[in-house]
Amino acid sequence: MKTMMIEGKSIDEAIENACSAFGVPREKLNIEIISEGSAGFLGIGAKKVQIKASLLTIDLMIDAPIARQSAEPGAFETQVRESAKEKAKKMLEGLLVRMQIDSSVSAEETQDAIILNIQGSGSGFLIGKRGQNLDAIQYIVSKAVHHSVNGHKMIVIDTEKYRERREESLIALALRSGEKVKKTKKPLTIGYMNAHDRRVIHLALQNDATLTTKSRGEGEYRKILILPVRRSPEMSDG
Q1: Which residue among 18, 30, 112, 123 is buried most deeply as judged by most CB within 10 Å?
Q2: Are 140 and 66 in contact (CB under 8 A)?
């Protein structure tokens, strides 16, 4: 598997450089941060961020089969007649076969989303680090389904209740971090998260009037900044 060392002034810039180098979106890359760099003193001795990037293994296995499937005569017409839920389920089942993962898929549709659940395979590879592989599969299925079926409901792919466990851990992290900010009266940074995970952090703390949260950085993966709310003199006691 091709691996490249990529540099940038920030982690976001390094990731963008990696996407350009491989010619794929962020979801199709495995990123490992080697060095977060340093600003140096007055710009002297500054070091760039360095990351190691490679294509996710699952993409090497499934991109070509998907392309061939889409190119089959009459495939497009058949796909259009299928509902988005049916199409997504069949697409995911096909990917699992190509990945040599013997697991069944259940599908349900809500007002806002199509939820596909892979019956527990016990495979850590299927989930990947922080759900990276699961996110990549979800990205590919979403692109394939919305390319050929009208409607753009969110497609969520889960296994072994990973999404639920991940959300619970993020909420716990948000609450712990919020308590630390209250005690120290100093801002605290949690990095780098995708848009969904950042939203969980924001929502977990949105009803706490003593705290505020902000996204920091550029690109898909940004940091979350938790800050104490400054009280105006009129609001202070006394």
Answers
A1: 18
A2: yes
CA gap 104, 119 in Å, rounded = 6
- Domains identified in the chain, total number: 3
Look up the domain containing 32 and give its range.
Answer: 3-55
> Is there a single domain that holds both residue 132 and residue 198?
no
User: Over the chain (238 residues), what is each successive 10-residue block's mean pLDDT?
Assistant: 82 85 80 73 68 70 44 46 83 86 90 87 73 84 69 83 92 96 94 83 94 83 88 50
**One-letter amino acid of 171:** I
Looking at the structure, do residues 92 and 154 belong to the same domain, yes or no? yes
Alpha helices in 99-226 (DSSP H): 124-127, 132-148, 162-184, 195-205
Q: Is residue 238 part of a domain?
A: no
Judge if pTM exceeds 0.70: no
Q: Which of 160, 182, 201 is the last residue of a domain?
A: 160
Q: Which of 229, 236, 238 is nearest to 209 (CA)?
A: 229
Q: Where are the alpha helices (DSSP H) in 11-157?
A: 11-22, 57-71, 75-81, 84-98, 124-127, 132-148
Q: Of 160, 178, 201, which residue sits at a domain end? A: 160
109 with 169, same domain: the answer is no
* pLDDT computed for residue 184 by the predictor: 95
Collapse the DSSP code of 27 into the 3-class scheme (helix H, G, I; strand E, B; otherwise coil) and give the result: helix
Cα gap 221→57, rounded to integer Å? 21
If asked whether residues 75 and 150 sit together in one domain, one would say: yes
Q: DSSP character for 146?
A: H
pLDDT given at position 95: 87
Distance CA 107, CA 5 (A): 39
